[in-house]
C-alpha cells in the first residue's frame, strides 16, 4: 500500500503544477501555441532519377514535437511526407564469429545465415501518422549451440496531433536467437524494415523503458516486447502535461535465465522556455516482477529534464534526480535503497556526418541474470559518406550491470560488456544495398560466465557481418 500511496501523491502533485498554469491559458487564449502545419503529401521520388539523393537531402523537415518528459527518444524531425505507401523487400545476412554464442562453447569459427522478408509501411492523414517496419524469417547456423530457428523484429507507431493534445501509441517486438544488445552491428540486420530513404520514420522508446539485455551471459533465443501509450495535453501556451504507460516483458526459451515483466507509469510537466529549449519535471514509477520468483522491485524516480531541439541539426535530452527503490524480499535486512539516476540522449547532424549518443544510469530489469540490477549503459553511433557510393559507420556499446544491493558475506556478481564495431554500406542501383562490417563482443565478470568447467570470467567473440538487402518499388496507397 505504501508504494501506491507514493504513486498517487506523485500524480496529484504533477497535476497541481499543471492546474496552477491554467489561468495563463485563459489569459493567452488569443495567442495560441503554434502547431505544425497539416501533413503534406508530396509526390514519391522518381526511383530512376539520379537527383533523388540530392532531393532527399534538401527537402523541408518537420520538427519533433515530442515532450521532453515523454517516453520516446528525441529525433531531428522528419522529412515532409510523400504519398502513403508500403515497400516489400528481402534480405540475406551472414554473421561469422570466432566462437559459439554461448560462453560454454568451444573456440572455433562458425557462421549463421539469415534469410528474411522486410516490410515498411507509412500511412499519413491530416493529423495522424501510422508507421511500421518489420523484418522476419529464418536463420541457419553451424553453431551447434545456436542451431536453426526463426527471428522477427517489429517497430510500429501511431501518432495523433490535435490542437491541444497529442497521443502516441508504440510497440517494439523482437524474437532473436541472442541478445539484442549489439545484434547485427552496423549491418542492415540490426533494424526492422527496409533501409534507405524509403524506410518508414518511427520514434523509438528510450533505453530505460525497454527490458534490458546487456548481459551476454544470458544466452539462447528470447522474445521481448514493449508497448507504450502516451497522452500530452497543453494547459497553457507554453506548458503541457504528459501521462504515459509502458508494459515490457522478456522471456527466454532456454531454462537457467530469469524472465521479467515491467510496468511503468510516467507523468511529467513540460515548459517551453524558447522555441528551442524546454524544461520539465517528471515522476516515474516502475514495477519489476519475475514470474516464478519471490522478488519484486518497485522504483520511484523524480527527475528534472532539459531538452534542446534544432530541426534537422540537434536533438538533446538530459534528465536526472533522486531514485528510491523498494524490495518485496528484503536484501541485507533492508526493503529500501536511496540513490540517484539519470539519462542523456544526443543526436547531432553535421553537413555530412551524423552522431548519436545515449547514456542511462539507474535500475533495470536485470537482463535475464539478476532480479533487478543497477545498470550503466552507453551507446554511440557515427556515420558519414566516404565516397560517392560508399558510406562508413562506427558503433560502440558499453554496459555495466551489478546487483542493486550487494549481499553481505557473498561475492556480488558484476558484468562489463563492450561492443565496438565498424561497417561499410554501398547501394547498387535504387533497390539494393550491401553492408559489410566487423564487431567484437567482449564480456568481463568477477564470476564465471557459465556453470561448466571450461568457462572463465572473460569472453571475447569476433564477428564479421554481411548483409544484402533488396526492396521493390514503393506501392502507393494514396
What attributes characterize this protein structure?
3 helices; two-stranded antiparallel ribbon; globular; Porin; 18-stranded antiparallel β-barrel; 478 residues; mainly beta
Give an overview in words.
The chain has 478 residues and is mainly β. The protein has a single domain, classed as Porin (Beta Barrel). It has three helices and 21 strands. The longest helix is centred in the first third of the chain and has 19 residues, at 2-20. 40% of the residues are buried. Residues 14-58 have low confidence and may be disordered.
Question: What is this entry, summarized?
Answer:
With 478 residues, this protein is mainly beta. Helix content is 7%, strand content 54%. The strands form 2 sheets. It has an 18-stranded antiparallel β-barrel. It has a two-stranded antiparallel sheet with strand order 1-2.
Our count of domains comes out at 1
Strand content: over 45%
Element order: H for helix, E for strand: HHHEEEEEEEEEEEEEEEEEEEEE
CATH topology: Porin
Largest sheet: 18 strands, antiparallel, barrel
> What is the overall pLDDT average?
86
Structural class: mainly beta
Number of DSSP-assigned strands: 21
List the total number of helices.
Answer: 3
CATH architect. name: Beta Barrel
Query: Based on CA inertia axes, which overall geometry fits?
Result: globular
Distance between the termini: 52 Å
Percent range for helical residues? Answer: under 10%
**Nearest-angstrom radius of gyration?**
23 Å
Pick out the low-confidence regions: 14-58
Amino acid at each position: 500500500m505504501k508504494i501506491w500511496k507514493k504513486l498517487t501523491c506523485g500524480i496529484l502533485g504533477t497535476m497541481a503544477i499543471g492546474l496552477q498554469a491554467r489561468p495563463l491559458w485563459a489569459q493567452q487564449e488569443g495567442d495560441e501555441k503554434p502547431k505544425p502545419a497539416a501533413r503534406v503529401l508530396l509526390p514519391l521520388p522518381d526511383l530512376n532519377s539520379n537527383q533523388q539523393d540530392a532531393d532527399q537531402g534538401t527537402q523541408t523537415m518537420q520538427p519533433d514535437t515530442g515532450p521532453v518528459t515523454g517516453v520516446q527518444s528525441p529525433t531531428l524531425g522528419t522529412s515532409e511526407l510523400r504519398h502513403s505507401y508500403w515497400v516489400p523487400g528481402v534480405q540475406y545476412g551472414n554473421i561469422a564469429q570466432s566462437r559459439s554464442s554461448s560462453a560454454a562453447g568451444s573456440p572455433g569459427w562458425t557462421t549463421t545465415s539469415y534469410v528474411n522478408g522486410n516490410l515498411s509501411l507509412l500511412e499519413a492523414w491530416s493529423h495522424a501518422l501510422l508507421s511500421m517496419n518489420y523484418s522476419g524469417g529464418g536463420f541457419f547456423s553451424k553453431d551447434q549451440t545456436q542451431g536453426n530457428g526463426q527471428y522477427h523484429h517489429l517497430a510500429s507507431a501511431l501518432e495523433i496531433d490535435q490542437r491541444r493534445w497529442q497521443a502516441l501509441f508504440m510497440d517494439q517486438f523482437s524474437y532473436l536467437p541472442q541478445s539484442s544488445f549489439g545484434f547485427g552491428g552496423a549491418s542492415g540486420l540490426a533494424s526492422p524494415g527496409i533501409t534507405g530513404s524509403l524506410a518508414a520514420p518511427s520514434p523509438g522508446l528510450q533505453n530505460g523503458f525497454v527490458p534490458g539485455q546487456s548481459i551476454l551471459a544470458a544466452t539462447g533465443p528470447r522474445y521481448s516486447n514493449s508497448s507504450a501509450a502516451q497522452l500530452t495535453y497543453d494547459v497553457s501556451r507554453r506548458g503541457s502535461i504528459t501521462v504515459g504507460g509502458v508494459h515490457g516483458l522478456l522471456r527466454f526459451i532456454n531454462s537457467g535465465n530469469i524472465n521479467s515483466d515491467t510496468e511503468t507509469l510516467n507523468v511529467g510537466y513540460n515548459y517551453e522556455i524558447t522555441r528551442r529549449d524546454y524544461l520539465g519535471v517528471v515522476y516515474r514509477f516502475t514495477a519489476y516482477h519475475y514470474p516464478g520468483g519471490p522478488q519484486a522491485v518497485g522504483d520511484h524516480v523524480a527527475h528534472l529534464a532539459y531538452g534542446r531541439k534544432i530541426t534537422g541539426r540537434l536533438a538533446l535530452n538530459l534528465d536526472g534526480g533522486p531514485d528510491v527503490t523498494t524490495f518485496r524480499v528484503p536484501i541485507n535486512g533492508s526493503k529500501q535503497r536511496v540513490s540517484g539516476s539519470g539519462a542523456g540522449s544526443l543526436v547531432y547532424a553535421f553537413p555530412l556526418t551524423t552522431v548519436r549518443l545515449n547514456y542511462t544510469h539507474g535500475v533495470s530489469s536485470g537482463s535475464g541474470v539478476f532480479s533487478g540490477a543497477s545498470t550503466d549503459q552507453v551507446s554511440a553511433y557515427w556515420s558519414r559518406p566516404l565516397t560517392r557510393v560508399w558510406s562508413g559507420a562506427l558503433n560502440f556499446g558499453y554496459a555495466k550491470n551489478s546487483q542493486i544491493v550487494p549481499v553481505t558475506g557473498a561475492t556480488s556478481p558484476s558484468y562489463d560488456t563492450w561492443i565496438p564495431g565498424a561497417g561499410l554500406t554501398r547501394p547498387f542501383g535504387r533497390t539494393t544495398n550491401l553492408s559489410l562490417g566487423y564487431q567484437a563482443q567482449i564480456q568481463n565478470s568477477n564470476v564465471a560466465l557459465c556453470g561448466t568447467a571450461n568457462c572463465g570470467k572473460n569472453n571475447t567473440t569476433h564477428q564479421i557481418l554481411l548483409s544484402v538487402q533488396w526492396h521493390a518499388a514503393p506501392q502507393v496507397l494514396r
